Amino acid sequence: MSGKSFSPLAWLASAVVYILLLGATVIVFAVRQPWLGLTLSFDTSREAAVVVASRGPAAEIPTGTALVEVSGGGVSMRFKSVDFIPEPDGVLETYEIYDEFLGRQSGLSRILKSDTVTLRDTEGGEWTLRPGAVRPPGDLPAAFWVQLAVGVIAWLISAAVWVFRRKDTAARLLLLSGWTTAIFSPFAGVYSTRELAIDGTLLRWLSDLNFMGGSLFLGTLAALLTVYPRRLGPKWLTSFYVWSQAAWFVAQQVGVFESMVFARRFFIMLPVASTFVLAAWHWRATRRDPAARAALRWFLLSWIVGSGVFALFILLPQMFGVNTSALQGYAFLLFVLVYVGLAFGILRFRLFGLDEWWARIATWLALAAMLVVMDLLFLYQLHLSESMSLSLALLTCGMLWLPLRGYLSERLLGKAPADPRTAFRAVVDVALTPRSDERETLWRACLQSVFDPLRIERADTGSVGGRASLEADGEALVLPAVAEVGAMRLEYARGGRALFSPRDAATASELVDLLRHVMESRDAYERGVRVERGRIARDIHDNIGARLLSALHSREEPRREEALRGALADLRGIINDTTNPDLSPEAALADLRHEVSERLAAAGAVLSWEVSGSETLRPAPNLLHALRPMVREAINNVVKHARASEVSLRIGVTTEGTSVTIEDNGVGFDPERASRGHGLGNLQSRVAELGGRLKWSVGSAGRGARVEMSFPPSLLIQA
Amino acid sequence: MNVLIVEDHSDTRRWLVETVREAFPSAMIREAESVAAGLTACDESPDLRLALIDLTLPGGSGLEVIRRLAARCPEAHRIVVTVAGDDANLVTALSAGAQGYLLKEQAREVLVRQLVQAMDGIPAICPSLARRIMDHFRMTGPCEKKEGVLTQRELEVLGMIARGLRVADAARALGMAESTAATHVKSIYRKLDISSRAEAAVHATRMGLI
Predict the structure, then answer these.
(1) How much of chain A exceeds pLDDT 90, in percent?
(2) What is the pLDDT of residues A446-480, one digit of tens each?
(3) Alpha-carbon torsion (A288, A292, A295, A296), positive or negative
(4) Are A717 and A618 in contact (CB under 8 A)?
(5) B105, B161, B167: which to substitute to probe chain A, counting the most A Cβ within 10 Å?
(6) Which of A363, A521, A617, B111 has its CA at 20 to 30 Å from residue B184's CA atom?
């Protein structure tokens, strides 16, 4: 076939051209009729056609005029009720009556083609007018355009599905059904909205084709259900539904049946009934396959609501002699919805995510159905005029149904979105739980509460990072691993009632991002705690530990006391965080300054304290730590031995390093004794440990003592 | 002069008693080893002049004793004795009505000197405590009552002390008498009490209680 070289777009373009031609033809048929400008309604009690509205050539005839006869070209005909039926199928009992109806239509049509037409009313008054050569398109009623639109939409949707799945039997059947709809609906539009009459031959063609299209349509849909969503029954059943309808059409065409209502209404009920059986069968067959069932639900809802409502309200009443043909034009709208639902169901192509949307269509449809019911109710029981009952029905719908509908759709959908705050809390709980095995349990619980899947299991995808993704057409949702929380595979959303939608995937990705972020923050926080803990432990070990040891091992009571006091002072420093490396050197040394000056004041000496530093450099934290005991030690010596009245302490920071000079104006020192003294020996070794140098000398004024400690530039840090 | 010492550790208590004796040889010392005993002592001796109170005690916190003293014996000089205490607790104690503090680990001669100074009106204060007090006032924010806000001068004294200066040195650096600086520190302690009450009032209003 040459079809292979056609792209889907080219096929679609051909479909568009076809339907444009068809539409144009139908419009031409409808327009190329003589035009009176009358809207008539036949009143059986008066045996007359009552003018509902008049315009154009008939503008002079007042509304409410009851017309009984039309004449032109020397022929006159009395109006009969049968002349005003929009749709002969299901209304005219036998083919004989049908022929008679067509004959009358031809007669009326001929009269209307005369130059002047005379209408006579019940009072005997005569109205002569010149019919327009064509009916202006604007004069065509809404029902005509609706029926044309139904055909166009059905064809375009089915073609749009088919062009992408040309080898798919279901898509082919759908295309066939679209083609039949594009026949029965627009053709019915031409004759059911005729002004008074169209040529009988044309009417016969249109009406017969309408029946052919309609019956084939119903057969095709039943056939569709034998292959979609999965194959049911034997293969011949599919063709049977299509060909039996075709055969029946031929049979009634050649006059096998006498009763037209039977011929045109009975056999089409077979596929209608079949679809319900097939639907139930599918429903049972898909009970273990949520994806197929989701698709089926679409199909069934669209089919049952659309066709079911049509069969129930239009076709069925006709079997019992109720004339519903006035509603037919609008009822065709239901088939548009069938096509929209069908199209999505069959494509299975991004089917998920449309569930909610479909529910909205369903409620809308219910609204429309309710409108029809209410309208009929008022029409038959309250005997109100049509427009009045319609507005009453609208009012009732608006006041009762719309609020009810909102409530029902909420309840039916049962898809209240998980509160983001709850999810946030759950995710934070997952991340902050100390035990990692519990973390996964909580994560599962969180996912369960958000998506309500039938199953959650660990996914094999070992990839850490990335986003959540849909699998198997939305049957499953796979979430990536986050740190030690493994990748998860969620199957069958919302207890198997729905498929995962791209929105679910986006939500899941957000949750994963959130979890990742909180876990990273937690790690950073824990790292900070560990670093801080390490610093405190080091402080305790290096300072307090060393001092307690020296207290433990010291044989001299004063030294022991000194060491213990030093340990407690260090403890105080640690508790009050004065050992925090973030503190400026001035603040870090403020305690030392205070302590030293208090000690000296108690000993009757005055301290002069001077810190000269660089803007960019400061002593490293470990040097600041080490300085405290060293300065204490040195001050101890001054207090104990020097009997000084003035002590100066200078700390200088330069690029050369840090220097600490302590000078007093006391009695000076005996180098012999000083070197033996424990204090000096300790000081010496502490300074040496840091790679510094210690120098003793006589004070600058020639008296007292001067201790100089200098530390290398390696113990400096950038401020 | 009646003195109350509330301290659960018997060795420390004995040591404190000796220290007080050394500072004030004529003192009549009453000892308590728990909150309950401390409270009883407050009720029974309205003529207390000095109270040394440990914060961590069996049966509660020394803060209760401080509050009771502030209510019953406003004359009594209330001093917290603490070991390596963290200064956040000290701020709380000062807010509860303590007028000074002593560190137990200090040498006795330092302690004696501080006790005498405290009774002479020069309260103890150290750099990290000064920093915390400044933080406290910064965090409690503006107070409606004037007496709940630090004056410029008080802030200057605090700033000096936070840099490691003693009260006397701070006074010299700011060109004021030592007693003036000491008055500022006492006033700061008193304002801690007021500001903590103001803060409580703010919280209460926020919660709709008042």
Answers:
(1) 19
(2) 888 888 777 788 887 655 567 888 877 677 888 88
(3) negative
(4) yes
(5) B105
(6) B111
Give tens-digit pLDDT for A518-539: 888 888 888 988 888 888 888 7
For the domain made up of A586-718, give the CATH fold: Heat Shock Protein 90 (3.30.565)
User: What is the distance between the alpha carbons of residues A360 and A356, in angstroms, rounded to a whole number?
Assistant: 6
| pLDDT tens per residue across span B65-78 | 999 888 888 888 99
Say if pTM beats, i.e. exceeds, 0.90.
no
What backbone phi and psi angles, to 5 degrees, belong to A321?
80, 15
What is the structure's pLDDT at A242? 92
What is the Cα–Cα distance from B95 to B193, expressed in whole angstroms? 4
> What whole-number distance in Å separates Cα of residue A664 and Cα of residue A582?
32
Nearest CA in chain B to A584: B163
A143-195+204-413 fold: Rhopdopsin 7-helix transmembrane proteins (1.20.1070)
Provide the pLDDT for residue A426: 85
Nearest to A565 among B107, B113, B128 (CB): B107
Domains of chain B as residue ranges with CATH = 2-119 (3.40.50.2300), 127-206 (1.10.10)
Q: Which of B87, B109, B127 sits opposite A594 (nearest CB)?
A: B127
pLDDT in tens, A556-610: 887 788 788 888 888 887 887 776 767 777 777 888 888 888 888 888 888 888 8
- Enumerate the residues of chain B whose CB falls inside 8 A of the CB of residue A598: 110, 166
The dotted CATH code for A29-139 is 2.30.42.10
Q: A708 has which bridge partners?
A: A661, A695
Question: Are B126 and A591 inside 8 Å of each other by CB?
Answer: yes
What residues in A contact B161, CB-CB < 8 Å? 594
Confidence of residue A153 (pLDDT cuts 50, 70, 90): confident
Note whether A624 contacts B: Cβ–Cβ < 8 A.
no
A275 close to A308: Cβ distance less than 8 angstroms: no
Q: How far apart are the first and last CA of chain B?
A: 42
Q: What is the ipTM of this complex?
A: 0.80
Residue contact B165–A591, C-beta within 8 A:
no
At residue A637 the predicted structure's pLDDT band, cuts being 50, 70 and 90, is: confident
Whole-Å CA distances, A528 to A19, A522, A582: 72, 10, 14
Q: Phi and psi of A485, rounded to 5°?
A: -80, 120
Parts of chain A belonging to CATH 3.30.565.10: 586-718
Among B163, B172, B178, the residue to mutate for chain A (most A Cβ within 10 A): B163
Using CA coordinates, name the residue in chain A closest to B82. A572
The distance of B144 to chain A (nearest Cα, Å) reads 31
Residues of A in contact with B87 (CB under 8 A): 576
A vs B: CB pairs below 8 A: 68
Stretch(es) of chain A classified as CATH 1.20.1070: 143-195+204-413
Give the residue from A185, A289, A177 showing the smallest Cα distance to A223: A177
Select from B84, B86, B164 the Cβ nearest to the Cβ of A590: B164
Identify all chain A residues contacting B117, using CB atoms and an 8 Å cutoff: none
